[in-house]
Each structure stands twice: as C-alpha cells, then as structure tokens.
Amino acid sequence: xKNWFLKRIxxxxxxxxxGKKTVxxxxxxxxLGIVHIVGIAYPDLGLPVSTIEVALTEISxxxxxxxxxxxxxxxxxxxxxxxxxxx
Length: 87
Known about the structure:
Number of helices: 3
Structural class: mainly alpha
Largest sheet: none
Distance between the termini: 28 Å
Number of domains: 1
C-alpha cells in the first residue's frame, strides 16, 4: 500500500512538472557553479570549495541543458502538431 501511494505521488509530481524538469536541472547546475565560485572567493563561509574549472564547467553545462531542453520542447510541439503522440 505504501509503495502504491508513493508511486501515485511521484507520477503526479512528474506530470505536474512535465516540460519544466530540464529547466529546473539547468538552473540547478548554474546555481551550483555560482555557489562553488562564491566558495572559492570566500572560503570562510563553509560553502563547497572546488576548482574554478569545475565551477565554470557546471555553469556552462547548465546553459547547455537549458538550450537543449528548449530545443527538445520545440521538437515535441512540432511533432504533436503534425499528428504524433504526446509521449
């Protein structure tokens, strides 16, 4: 019963955020990179400290995810308009 309830909740959340999960992931990566840069600049704050290369990679990866997610949504929209399924 507990697994059934958890499955229903997770399915509802997935449907609610459909089309926004990629944006959330991209923004999360960008913010993580910014937090690492702040951690490098101010090591006394207790933030995670990494190298500047890692921080910049996370930021650029976040922008890449945002760009690819936008393209994917456009492709899905075109496919649905041409008679495809919404899957």
